[in-house]
Specification:
Layout (H helix, E strand, L loop, with lengths): L2 H4 L27 E11 L5 E9 L2 E3 L6 E4 L4 E6 L2 E8 L2 E10 L2 E11 L1
C-alpha cells in the first residue's frame, strides 16, 4: 500500500475506524484541533519504508488534502482513522502523539507505527 493511501491514517496509530462524538456548537472545538505533521514508518511488509504528511484536525475530524479519509480524535486524544482499507489508531497528548497502523500493498499485509507533532 502506498503511503499516500495511508497518510490520512496517521493519527492513527494505524489507520482508523471512525468514531463519532456529539458536541454542541459552543463545545465543538477539540483540544487537538490544528495542523499536525505525521510520520509513518513501515515495520513489516512491502509498503514504503517512511513518509511524512500534513493532517488537519477540525472539531475532532481528521482531514488531509486530496485524501479520502475517515477519522476522529476524541476529546481525550484517542485517534481512530481509516483510509482506503488501511487502519490506524493511537493517542495524542498535548502537542505530540503516536500509534500503530496496518494495511496492505498488492494484497500483502503491511504494518508499522506513526508519530505526530502539532505545528
Amino acid at each position: 500500500m502506498r503511503f499516500d493511501r495511508i497518510s490520512s491514517l496517521i493519527c492513527t496509530p494505524a489507520a482508523l475506524g471512525a468514531v463519532s462524538f456529539a458536541a454542541s456548537p459552543a463545545a465543538a472545538e477539540s483540544p487537538y484541533d490544528g495542523l499536525w505533521n505525521v510520520t509513518i514508518v513501515t515495520n513489516t511488509g512491502s509498503c514504503e519504508p517512511r513518509a511524512q504528511y500534513p493532517l488537519t484536525v477540525t472539531d475532532g475530524k481528521i482531514t488531509a488534502p486530496g485524501a479520502d479519509i475517515s477519522g476522529r480524535v476524541g476529546r481525550e486524544g484517542v485517534v481512530k482513522v481509516s483510509i482506503q482499507g488501511a487502519y490506524a489508531n493511537g493517542q495524542l497528548n498535548g502537542n505530540a502523539g503516536s500509534g500503530k497502523w496496518n494495511g496492505a500493498s498488492g494484497g500483502i499485509p503491511c504494518s508499522g507505527r506513526w508519530e505526530a507533532s502539532r505545528q
